[in-house]
Fold each of these.
Amino acid sequence: DQQVKQNSPSLSVQEGRISILNCDYTNSMFDYFLWYKKYPAEGPTFLISISSIKDKNEDGRFTVFLNKSAKHLSLHIVPSQPGDSAVYFCAASHFQGGSEKLVFGKGTKLTVNP
Amino acid sequence: NAGVTQTPKFQVLKTGQSMTLQCAQDMNHNSMYWYRQDPGMGLRLIYYSASEGTTDKGEVPNGYNVSRLNKREFSLRLESAAPSQTSVYFCAIEGGRRFLVNEQFFGPGTRLTVL
């Protein structure tokens, strides 16, 4: 049973336009949601996160929106740049066994065309 | 990926062989994690360690063992490798706090192929 779902395997946008990546989750116990970015042959890097008590968080060109009633979050990148081309993973966090554990979605490959 | 190192970067094994993947951190953080990433599957947690000397199972622990002998190092062992364990393995540590959550820092990964 997949607790975190990214239903779009890929997304292609033009440079300068908005990129919107979506994520759905099923477990109401998740307390934080995170986005990671991954380039080929590298480890994922943390991008931005949001607490379950908030509905929006911004960091420069990146904004994450959370709709708790719909169990849905999205990452907006404005404006998109070619260097943003990567795989984006949505992750949900819950504290268990003395550590914060992450459950990842399958990822969305974003391509930003010049 | 500064602060988390993994060795080796690549490895090819035959079915039944054993090997240990090494992970080391220089950030003095408590929690460490091992994930595997398969095509189209995202990252799945194999084992984690909340502190030195403690380990616990994640989502996909079968076929693996781990060891956390000190705060700095967390190793993952395959006792008898199987083709289903062909994957990219990432080590992560629980890092600094941003946006009220402990982000995890990931190492560069080990690409393992089991023939």
Amino acid sequence: DQQVKQNSPSLSVQEGRISILNCDYTNSMFDYFLWYKKYPAEGPTFLISISSIKDKNEDGRFTVFLNKSAKHLSLHIVPSQPGDSAVYFCAASPNRGTSYGKLTFGQGTILTVHP
Amino acid sequence: DAGITQSPRYKITETGRQVTLMCHQTWSHSYMFWYRQDLGHGLRLIYYSAAADITDKGEVPDGYVVSRSKTENFPLTLESATRSQTSVYFCASSPRRNQPQHFGDGTRLSIL
């Protein structure tokens, strides 16, 4: 039972355009969400997070949107750069209960940004 | 250098052998985590630790043992390795529960 799903295994985008990566979740207890970027042979690197009290969080070229009613979040990268080519994972965690602080990850989306 | 380091980076062993993966962090973070990454599954939590001598199971703990006698170290042991444990293993740490976790570069483990 996949509680966090990234339904697009891959995404290809032209340099300078917007990249939109999507993530859906099923567990209504999740209220803290993160995006990680991963290059080959390296560990995931934290990008941006959002808690359920917000519906948007920005950090430079990266913006995360949260739609709680749809249980959906998305990561927007504007403008996309070739160095953004990586695997992107979304992750979620509840803020209380026995699973507090434990991250559940999606399967990842491979982003390729073409020059 | 400050950070989180995993060793070894690559390991090949045989079924039935015991193998220990090491994780060391220099931030004095309270929380440490072990994940495995498999195709189609993303990262799945094996075990985590809230502090020295406090550990708890994650999503896929069977076949693994952890210990945390010192804050900075969190070794993961496969007591009798099986082929299904072939994977890439990542260690992570965070200062508090719901803060971003920082990952090591992983150990690629192959069990023949």
